[in-house]
Design a protein that fits this description.
GO terms for molecular function: tetrapyrrole binding. InterPro entries: ARM-type_fold, GUN4-like, GUN4-like_sf. The chain is mostly helical and 240 residues long. The chain folds into 2 domains: 1-87, no CATH class; 99-238, Arc Repressor Mutant, subunit A (Orthogonal Bundle), CATH 1.10.10.1770. Helix content is 55%, strand content 2%. It has helices spanning 2-20, 24-35, 39-55, 62-72, 77-86, 100-110, 114-128, 150-162, 170-179, 184-191, 227-233; strands at residues 194-195, 198-199. The longest helix has 19 residues, at 2-20. The N and C termini lie far apart (56 Å).
């Protein structure tokens, strides 16, 4: 009984620290620590996720994504049942059947299946500009990029961000590009798309995990010059 009381007190203390913390790195560390307290800690984290996403509906962030992912790895049946009850299709609920690919993308990302998520992302972008499965071309020209609807581009980017602790996403790549005065070589180096002045070979030389450099994923026609990526970084979605 004394040990359980101590665990409850420690979890309560850590949850208060989490609530007061504003630094993402510290928040993620605290979540991992609370999770390690077993069922009492994981129930507290599940309550926090339910409060953020369902009750107060705060702006979704990678904090929610990390909460969901770490709880998804729980061995406790009651935690798994709680996730299935409150978030049957993941953190973001897509109402239309037309959004099946977004549900699939969310499922891949929340399970850290980044290579498959990257392929689905490219497929979705092609479909958004009118290139269906019967089209011989499965890549985008720079003239295609402005036709990508802003809402779709932002949704794809959001999914990549919240399920990667804000490490991946087109907006992350754009941020790094702007921070390096729009210098492409510096971008490639920073996001790890080149090594020893050589472009990485797809797919085996790319890093499909959270150990990759910030901005490493998703890939985007990186072998077809800078015009397509330049068009993406200058898409109207980022300025609205």
């Amino acid at each position: 009984m004394s040990q359980k009381l101590n665990s409850n007190l420690e979890v309560s203390k850590k949850m208060n620290e989490l609530e007061l913390s504003i630094l993402l790195k510290q928040q993620l560390s605290l979540i991992q620590e609370i999770f390690s307290y077993g069922l009492v800690g994981q129930e507290a984290l599940l309550d926090l996720l339910i409060s953020r996403r369902i009750l107060t509906k705060v702006h979704i962030s990678c904090l929610d994504g990390f909460l969901f992912q770490i709880l998804y790895s729980s061995n406790f049946h009651v935690i798994q049942q709680g996730l299935k009850h409150y978030f049957p299709n993941g953190l973001i609920e897509f109402e239309s059947s037309l959004d099946l690919e977004y549900r699939n993308l969310q499922n891949l990302l929340q399970n850290y299946r980044y290579q498959e998520a990257d392929r689905l992302t490219q497929k979705k972008l092609c479909k958004l500009v009118g290139l269906d499965d019967n089209n011989q071309r499965d890549w985008l020209y720079f003239t295609d990029v402005p036709m990508i609807p802003s809402d779709d581009l932002l949704m794809i980017d959001l999914l990549w961000k919240i399920y990667s602790r804000e490490k991946f996403g087109f907006s992350k790549q754009r941020q790094i590009w702007l921070a390096n005065n729009c210098n492409w070589n510096r971008l490639w180096q920073n996001i790890g798309w080149i090594s020893k002045s050589q472009t990485l070979r797809y797919p085996n030389e790319f890093n499909w995990s959270l150990n990759a450099p910030s901005g490493h994923l998703p890939l985007f026609n990186q072998l077809r010059g800078v015009q397509v990526l330049s068009a993406l970084f200058n898409h109207i979605a980022w300025t609205n």
